[in-house]
Amino acid sequence: MNAYQGEDVVTINKNFQNSKLGNIISYEKLTDNIIKFVRDYYEENNIYGAVLGISGGKDSAVVAAILCKALGSERIVGLTMPCYSKEEDMRDARKISEYYGFRLLNIDLSDIFDDFKREINLLGNYSLEDTKNSDINIKPRMRMMSSYYMAQLLSKVEDRTYLVVGTSNKSELYVGYFTKGGDSVHDIAPIGDLLVSEVIKVGEVLGVPKEVLYKTPSDGLSGMSDEDKMGVSYDDIERYILKDDTLDKEIALKIEKMHNNSRHKFIIPMYEKDRV
User: Fold this and answer.
1) What CATH number is attached to the domain comprising 147?
2) What residues have CB less than 8 Å from 261, skipping those under 6 apart?
3) How many domains does one find in the chain?
4) Which of 18, 122, 131, 138 would you call most buried, defined as having the most Cβ atoms within 10 angstroms of its Cβ?
């Protein structure tokens, strides 16, 4: 799942692992490396633009800032895709678009969600509790579909290629805090190898508005904060990944279980006919 395999970033991440001991990290260098990674990939593959969901949270804001630096704001298309979403998130998404100067298109998925639910209700008498998790996860899957639709549409209309850009970070990916077939599906992942604290530091370097960068993260789906939903803090996940021996053992076991239980999201078993 590592989005950036460059030697410099690997070195910086190793330095970060020792940062508890006081090592100094060049987040400016890390930011420059990610920007270069995106720019080089686009140039080498003759790709023009980027489509990404703008949720109003820090991850999509940081990725948008990276893309604007790497490609120019005129090549970025942000999508807000509300599905009974909070107006605060929509407002923050518009704020990021205006701040960095990229296009922002709105695709309201609320009616589509309702139509889908009506069709499902024809199949059986399911309670709200029965459909709770399915309802939560269908929304990012609808957003994935919408993002790829727009990327393909823009590629055709403008006769130049657009990619869908992911906004997941390493902390979320490690514990499986994403929707399989939803926000996990994209063409390039600029912050996929960054821990949450690193995302924030990169955001500081890029001047992401503080009210968005330090906003309490939530999935915008369950009505809970990310940490309440997961039952562990991002700091705990980070300490586990960085092999902090002082982390509470019960918390460590919970994070390990979350990681192991989400392996199906990363590895798709395939029968190999030549395998003995």
Assistant:
1) 3.40.50.620
2) 176
3) 1
4) 138
Does residue 183 form part of some domain?
yes
pLDDT tens for residues 96-135?
999 999 999 999 999 999 999 999 999 998 998 999 999 9
Contact predicate 165/98, CB 8 Å: no
Q: Which domain holds residue 94?
A: 7-216
Let me know if residue 67 belongs to a domain: yes
Residue 205 maps to a domain: yes
